[in-house]
Design a protein that fits this description.
It contains 15 helices and 17 strands. The chain is an alpha/beta fold. The chain folds into 2 domains: about 10-60 and about 305-405, Aspartate Aminotransferase, domain 1 (Alpha-Beta Complex), CATH 3.90.1150; about 75-300, 3-Layer(aba) Sandwich (Aspartate Aminotransferase, domain 2). α3 (about 60-70) runs antiparallel to α12 (about 290-300), α13 (about 305-330) runs parallel beside α15 (about 385-405) and α14 packs across α15. The protein starts with 10 loop residues before the first helix and ends with a helix. Keywords: Amino-acid biosynthesis, Aminotransferase, Arginine biosynthesis, Cytoplasm, Pyridoxal phosphate, Transferase.
């Protein structure tokens, strides 16, 4: 017997849900590849990817198969036990990265929470309780828990929740001199996104990350890379740190790791991991068989030359065509980013109007994102088909034409 499906509409959101979101006026009900259909049957092309989550698009057959197969076997057993999907996915992540140890959880915020707690615990155990300060970048985003939102460099998200967590400093991104001036023997960690996502799709300069690595080594601080948005093939490498050739001590991953199923991971070395001894940290659902089975299917597909080379090729195509469009219609001053995490930066005349571009795109049947009010963000499926790229860009051009004429 199946649960009774009650008819619902967008108006139910305003009646039943906490008003911390302002969802679109339509309700998506089905997705296939890079296309989505709403309640009225209208079809939209998806260049948003669930905010850089749907790394293989919607309902990818391999992910559906992995989830369905695991759903017949074991859903949840708790961390009183381990399970086979957890062990397989952990091994694959270790084999593919700098890491030797993995901690599984459910969201990017939790992966960052674990990373920041580990950094503070390591410093506490090695150097005493005075070494607990964390340096992060302005305009960064690291999650919405009280700790992670304070590490994030956007006061609009952290203000109004009582006293701030102490020992957190923010410096301008890509400014090595500022980092040099801020770091001290009290610093336990420097936390950076290799590509600032929410802050405007801003990639780090190689010299900046190299300099951060050297400063951390010099001051016995840990370098933490938040790759929640840039990881799992999004940059054209499995993780963006590989693109830069700079290895962190701790890395957080989520979003694309489950291709749409909630899962996150903190990756680190054995030497650091031992500071999280039994009982020091945990999560009920972390590493559950369903999530890890899907995550394993994702890494098996994404971590292949075929897919990663495909990301680079698609990236060039998007970049060239968006730049040309922006010039034709006088909206963008540049297109920046890495792989299939791209940002079209609005020119001075259009600054602050990213939401208008989003709305115009939806009117033409296209889903895009914003990253700050000045940047239109694109995070499509890594395996998006050529026909969907062409049609989606054609719809985007119609949206820009309509805006520039208006």
């Amino acid at each position: 017997m199946s649960a009774e499906h009650v008819s619902v509409a967008r108006a139910d959101f305003d009646q039943y849900l906490v008003p911390n979101y302002a969802p679109a006026a339509f309700v998506p009900v089905r997705g296939q590849g890079s296309r989505v259909w709403d309640q009225s049957g209208r079809e939209l092309i998806d260049f948003a990817g669930g905010i850089a989550v749907n790394v293989l698009g919607h309902c990818h057959p391999a992910l559906v198969a992995a989830l369905t197969e695991q759903a017949q076997q074991l859903w949840h057993i708790s961390n009183v036990f381990t399970n086979e999907p957890t062990l397989r996915l952990a091994r694959k992540l270790v084999e593919a990265t700098f890491a030797e140890r993995v901690f599984f959880c459910n969201s990017g915020a939790e992966a960052n929470e674990a990373a920041f707690k580990l950094a503070r615990r390591v410093a506490h155990d090695r150097y005493g309780e005075d070494k607990y300060e964390i340096i992060a970048a302005f305009n960064s985003f690291h999650g919405r828990t009280l700790f992670t939102v304070n590490v994030g460099g956007q006061p609009k998200y952290s203000d109004g929740f009582g006293p701030k967590i102490s020992g957190i400093t923010h410096v301008p991104y890509n400014d090595l001199e500022a980092l040099k001036a801020a770091i001290s023997e009290k610093t336990c960690a420097v936390v950076l996104e290799p590509i600032q996502g929410e802050g405007g799709v801003l990639p780090a300069e190689r010299a900046y990350l190299e300099g951060a690595r050297a400063l951390c080594d010099q001051h016995n601080a840990l370098l933490v890379f938040d790759e929640v948005q840039s990881g799992m093939g999004r940059s054209g490498e499995l993780f963006a740190y590989m693109h830069y050739g700079v290895t962190p001590d701790i890395l957080s991953s989520a979003k694309s790791l489950g291709g749409g199923f909630p899962i996150a991971a903190m990756l680190t070395t054995s030497e650091l991991a031992k500071h999280l001894a039994v009982g020091t940290h945990g999560t009920t659902y972390g590493g559950n068989p369903l999530a890890c089975a899907v995550g394993e299917a994702v890494i098996d597909i994404v971590n292949t030359p075929q897919v990663l080379d495909g990301v680079k090729a698609r990236s060039e195509q998007f970049r060239e065509r968006l730049q040309a469009m922006g010039q034709r219609h006088g909206l963008f001053e540049e297109v920046r980013g890495l792989g299939l995490l791209l940002g079209a930066v609005l020119n001075p005349a259009w600054q602050g109007k990213a939401k208008q571009v989003l709305d115009a795109a939806v009117a033409e049947g296209l889903l895009v994102l914003q990253a700050s009010p000045d940047v239109v963000r694109f995070a499509p499926s890594l395996v998006i088909e050529q026909a969907d790229i062409d049609e989606g860009l054609a719809r985007f051009e119609r949206a820009l034409a309509r805006l520039s004429q208006a």
